[in-house]
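Hey,

Quick one before I head out. I ran the complex with zinc ion overnight. Inputs first:
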Amino acid sequence: MNNRPKRRKSRKQIKRQKQIMAIAALIVMIILVIAVFTGLILLIKKVSSNEKKPSGNTTQNTESNKSTESEHNTDNTSEPSSEDTTTSAKIDKSVWFLQLVNASHTLSATPDIELETLKNGYQCDKRIADDLQDMFDDARAAGLNPIICSAFRTHERQIYLYNLEVENFKKQGYSDEEAKRLAGTSTAVPGTSEHELGLALDIVSASYQLLNDEQANTPEQKWLMANCYKYGFILRYPKDKENITGIMYEPWHYRYVGKEAAKEITEKGLCLEEYLEMY
Ligand SMILES: [Zn+2]
């Protein structure tokens, strides 16, 4: 008696259970399908974004270049990128402000350049005068007092200075050969000095005018070393490049190389020889 309704109940229960299971299975399947779909979409997005990466960057660069075009013209401020390398690769090494003068690239005479006489009587290549003035104006605006202690020198003047140095060493008891070698480490051998180009300036602090390593610790040199590239200048004979430049560390000798080169040289920690070697 009791069995029948019981059996009927259980049959109903089984039916309901089957229905519930079917619904559950359906829900699980739907969830699985959604999960697989989402996964696929994410995968596709990832793949396509990877493919687009290089061209995406170029677009970004072009856009940022456009927006800073005026800045580019005056300052050439741009982050190092593949595009910059392409631009830099086109650099003309024979341009006047990149002329290399060192022991193996010598001048035989004073170059024929138009000179600008500065307020202090020193002379430099007329074409760098404006940038030089801007650098000094900004340094002074920062409360500093840099002064030029050497600028353009004729070939003849360089010969005179070099011979003077050789004589000094000879007086100290060095042989002619040794005196010449030693003189060459502190005073450029005639024809190897950038001062003959009119593109180099020795700048010191008004409060410390000695040409030695201590010069680097003056606020003027700290400012110049950090900012000179903005005006197209570089510290030409850095401390760690003596073996390449052949000249001892000179934390006062600044050389004009143009704003683009000055920025790249500074950012990459190069000396002029290394920079020109790259192209
Ligand atoms: Zn110098």
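The beta strands are 115-117, 123-125, 146-150, 200-205, 233-235, 253-256.

Talk tomorrow,
K.
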